[in-house]
Amino acid sequence: MTLLSDEILVKMLKADDHAAFREIYKRYWKSLFLAAQRKLKSEETCEELVQNIFLAIWEKRDTLLIENLRGYLFSALKYQVVDQLRRELLAEKYSGFLQAKEEQYEETPEGALHFRDISAIFESIFAQLPAKTSRVFHLSRIEHKSTKEIAALLDIPERTVEYHITQSLKILRRQLSDFLPLWIIVCYKLLNG
């Protein structure tokens, strides 16, 4: 396999050849990982992004149009890295937003109490949610993944993803109804992210 060209490996991959896929993986995994590492801090995140690329290639092998395998892989990595940086920036902004609100509400004892109560309620609600519902909500509202991305990642239909998001939002709204003014301020970004 090591002597085969990328073009032949791609043709074999389209014919469901596991050995061709393994050779493509072996040939490009490390260079993709190192390229991701130059842009991102976390080795774990780099590994995840590279794994996602290979997973997508295997899952879509029969419909892929790849003329230049190396170019295709590095383009896919570029998009994965850009999406990851966007997610990290949004998470950082959200964290700053929450910290600012917490500091604002800690100026009064009542505000600090409400903020802590809401944080405790959030933790309690997520501990009670079914694992899949909690995971879908986290991917959607914290990691800002699309319904389509979540469905592919968890191998479930998009309608199921929408159902889990709807259920978690209903539960959050119901549980936080007593804190409505603060809920709107603190959670707007989370729920409408």
Automatic annotation (TrEMBL):
Could you confirm whether the keyword Chloroplast appears in this record?
no
Q: Which UniProt keywords apply?
A: Sigma factor, Transcription, Transcription regulation
Q: Where is the RNA polymerase sigma factor 70 region 4 type domain?
A: 122-170
Q: Which residues form the RNA polymerase sigma-70 region domain?
A: 25-88
Q: What top-level branch of life does the organism fall under?
A: Bacteria
Which InterPro entries is this protein grouped with? RNA_pol_sigma-70-like, RNA_pol_sigma-70_dom, RNA_pol_sigma70_bacteroid, RNA_pol_sigma70_r2, RNA_pol_sigma70_r4_t2, RNA_pol_sigma_r2, RNA_pol_sigma_r3/r4-like, WH-like_DNA-bd_sf
What Pfam families does this protein map onto?
Answer: Sigma70_r2, Sigma70_r4_2
Name the NCBIfam families for this protein.
Sig70_bacteroi1, sigma70-ECF
The record ties this protein, via PANTHER family, to:
RNA POLYMERASE ECF-TYPE SIGMA FACTO (PTHR43133), RNA POLYMERASE SIGMA-70 FACTOR ECF SUBFAMILY (PTHR43133:SF46)
User: What family, per the record?
Assistant: Belongs to the sigma-70 factor family. ECF subfamily.
Q: What is this protein called?
A: RNA polymerase sigma-70 factor
Q: Organism, per UniProt?
A: Ravibacter arvi
